[in-house]
Amino acid sequence: MHPCQLLTLLWSLFLIQSQIAHARTLRFVTVLFRHGDRAPIDTYPQDPHKERSWPNGLQQLTQEGMQQQYELGQYLRRRYSHFLSPSYQKQEIYVRSTDYDRTLMSAQVNLAGLYPPNSSQRWNPEIRWQPIPVHTVPVTQDRLLKFPIKDCPRYHELMEETVQLPEYQDKMKGWKDFINQMANHTGYSMEEGMLRKIWKVYDTLHCQKMHNLSLPEWATPDTLRTLEEISTFEIRSHVNLHKVNEKARLTGGILVDAVLRNFTEVLQRSLPLKMIMYSVHDTTIIALHGALKVYNEKHPSYAACHIFEFYREPDSTYSVAMFYRNDSRRESYELILPGCISPCPLSQFVKLTAPVIPKNWDEECHRPEPAANTAAP
């Protein structure tokens, strides 16, 4: 080799090593995912199918939902193969779920895809699976992952104010005849909890359609579109209408705060923890996206996944990037916090999200008793 060529090669290697030494490095990951496909939450009074049409019962994870979560676990394994150890290491990951069968089962199946046991972890040669802890707290005590929180008086006051808005009232007047028709078709009395019942009807019909069950004659494509439109507006009334920051402080802001505090804890204590996983609901992801001002009014699909990635920058500062996967056939796409770049400097991310993070949730909620379980681990 000519001396000049050798010098060029050595210089190129030096530049590559220099770039590697000064590259951004992944330090910590938080993953939130919706449970997989499930049976309807409920049936309406005149539903011809009822619970008998669902092998595992209402609200339960289906086999399709299990497959979705297993695939998500495999996706996370591919995405973080360079970051997580090849085999399960208890000090690297912490998993928490809401206390519902479908989210607990989703977490377990997801972990089966993320951590297939290697040869030393195979406790049974015929079973390619290993038990991995999934933590939870009772629903009545969950202040972190289940929204809206029922025992938050101020939140209910805010929703009562929202219902009185001219925009809200005009929408309801426009849907009045349709809602009356739904009452006749379903057997529901629509006087109280009207939008909640409309959502239940839509959820039931949507689940039945996805599983090739016959729909009643009145459940036309136009009817389903209107039910979806009403359901979307009902969600928007929680997230994007009336005192949105205050609502976020009582819901999704709690989760944003926990995500940031967990990373701070990992750094301050030099913990080996690399990933926290939360198995949650569509309402959890919606509340989170509302607090982050990235909610696009598209409903989180089954196994939808929101990812926070925390990096150590070459100058020893930290940054955070967000990714969202709402379609299992596609790669995650980047979410950018309004007012920042991506990855967002952590100090800027904290500053921009400060308005939606509660200082004292009990006081802001007008609760007489202190709350618990707002962070993990």
Describe this protein's structure.
Strands 1, 2, 3, 4, 5, 6 and 7 form a seven-stranded mixed beta sheet that branches. Mean pLDDT is 90; it is low at 9-21. This protein has 377 residues and is of the alpha/beta class. The longest helix has 19 residues, at 3-21. 44% of the residues lie in helices and 11% in strands. The radius of gyration is 24 Å and the shape is globular. It has 13 helices and seven strands. It starts with a helix and ends in a 12-residue tail after the last helix. It has helices at residues 3-21, 63-79, 101-114, 153-163, 166-174, 176-186, 194-210, 221-239, 244-250, 252-268, 282-292, 346-353, 361-365; strands at 25-34, 93-97, 275-280, 305-312, 318-325, 333-335, 344-345. It folds into two domains: 22-150 and 253-365, 3-Layer(aba) Sandwich (Rossmann fold); 166-241.
Task: Please give a quick description of this structure.
This protein is an alpha/beta fold and 377 residues long. The chain is built from 13 helices and 7 strands.
Q: Which short descriptors sum up this protein?
A:
single chain; 377 residues; alpha/beta; Rossmann fold; 2 domains; seven-stranded mixed sheet; globular
